[in-house]
Amino acid sequence: MESFTAGLISLEEARQKMLDRLSPLNESETLSIYSAAGRITAAPVISPLNVPPFDNSAMDGYAVRMADLARGEALALAGKAFAGAPFSGEWPAGCCIRIMTGAPVPDGAEAVVMQEQTAAEGEGIRFTAEVSAGQNIRRAGEDIRQGDSVLAAGVRLGAAELPLIASLGIGEVEVVRRLRVAIFSTGDELQPVGQPLAAGQIYDTNRFTVRLMLDQLGCEVIDLGIIRDDPQALRAAFVQADREADVVISSGGVSVGEADYTKAMLDELGAITFWKLAIKPGKPFAFGRLSNSWFCGLPGNPVSAAVTFYQLVQPLLAKLSGQQHAALPPRQRARAVTRLKKTPGRLDFQRGVVSRGAEGELQVTSTGHQGSHVFSSFSQANCFIVLERERGHVEPGEWVEIEPFNVLLGG
Ligand SMILES: Nc1nc2c(c(=O)[nH]1)N[C@H]1C(S)=C(S)[C@@H](COP(=O)(O)OP(=O)(O)OC[C@H]3O[C@@H](n4cnc5c(N)ncnc54)[C@H](O)[C@@H]3O)O[C@H]1N2
Ligand code: MOO
């Protein structure tokens, strides 16, 4: 291991140190289900109904009683049942009822025979296949019973959850209040998009990356803009951010250069929990506590800022907002197609393209140059190639771990 990576803490240790310190917000609000996408449930959702609410047909066909089928003769039609218009009338022995999918099953019906297993015979219907009792009947409450908890607290509401709530006739849901997150970029070289660049200047991309990810996570963003490399200005930004937010996220100035003041500010205005991780990119990431808020200092290099937000800040925000399930997709094994350059010492998050190989196995290709300034590597990639801390170069054909991108990175 390189000597200058020896004292760095591991990603797991860093995550654990962060998560151990924080507890979820316990403030909630009630929202219409139409405005609750992306939010986290603050309490279990209890079903007020049985689903389905009544026994109904799974097929277009004929509702029958088993005794009427026993003689093997065609059955006359006693009437019809539609979804929304149940059968009402007499059902004499030796008859069946025409029934459509979703229609309430008439009282006494023991099975529904799908249309394709019947034939017209004179005025009646003949059944051409074996019928078993109960077939094609969807029973009341077989999906959800009245009083069941259909969603636990801590569930992120999306297209799998909100329609479920709607199907129960529930119009409002109790969710955790949005996290307030203050963000700013630091650096004299930074210009906002839309301004011309003078010599030595670059555009501020990190604030935009962080903002987009926070929007997708349903956070309320307090954007303090670009802060110059000046301790006074930086102190003012820290104080305002801490006053207004639950979490403060800066980018840049966390390394050891002469204009890198972020860590000193954290030391002065709060308490540092850790600084410098054995990950690449993202080594100088800093985490700590201010008077009122949690602080995350992202490194200035754009890939480093995105990787540390994704790998460290995202789980922190998930825990604060009470989210129960993991924020990151599980890792999988894939075969490297291309050579991957790697120096032992830090866990490496290279950007890759994962696909299915000829024999069905996952295979992964590097996006090329892995410098922490090469942001285009993200737009080409669909996963991280996660290379263990002690590993050296990877030759084509070797197995590696990949972590598919989640929705924050377009996965
Ligand atoms: N002597 C050492 N130098 C550096 C080390 C080290 O361990 N020893 N670590 C390197 C690593 S790794 C990283 S990552 C960077 C982190 O530096 P800072 O967080 O202090 O960031 P800056 O110096 O302010 O900027 C680094 C780089 O990124 C550009 N940048 C900054 N902010 C933005 C932004 N909002 N949008 C786009 N680009 C940004 C900046 O211009 C620099 O090029 O330190 C290494 N150095
Ligand atoms: O950690 Mo830096 O983020 O390697 O470029």
TrEMBL record:
It catalyses: adenylyl-molybdopterin + molybdate = Mo-molybdopterin + AMP + H(+). SMART domains: MoCF_biosynth (SM00852). The keyword Metal-binding applies. InterPro entries: MoaB/Mog-like_dom_sf (IPR036425), MoaB/Mog_dom (IPR001453), MoCF_biosynth_CS (IPR008284), MoeA-like (IPR038987), MoeA_C_domain_IV (IPR005111), MoeA_C_domain_IV_sf (IPR036688), MoeA_linker/N (IPR005110), MoeA_linker/N_sf (IPR036135). Signal peptide: none annotated. One of its GO terms (cellular component) is cytosol. One of its GO terms (molecular function) is metal ion binding. One of its GO terms (biological process) is Mo-molybdopterin cofactor biosynthetic process. It comes from the Bacteria. Keywords: Magnesium, Metal-binding, Molybdenum, Molybdenum cofactor biosynthesis, Transferase. Residues 182-319 form the MoaB/Mog domain. Pathway: Cofactor biosynthesis; molybdopterin biosynthesis. Belongs to the MoeA family. Catalyzes the insertion of molybdate into adenylated molybdopterin with the concomitant release of AMP. This is Molybdopterin molybdenumtransferase. It comes from Mixta theicola.
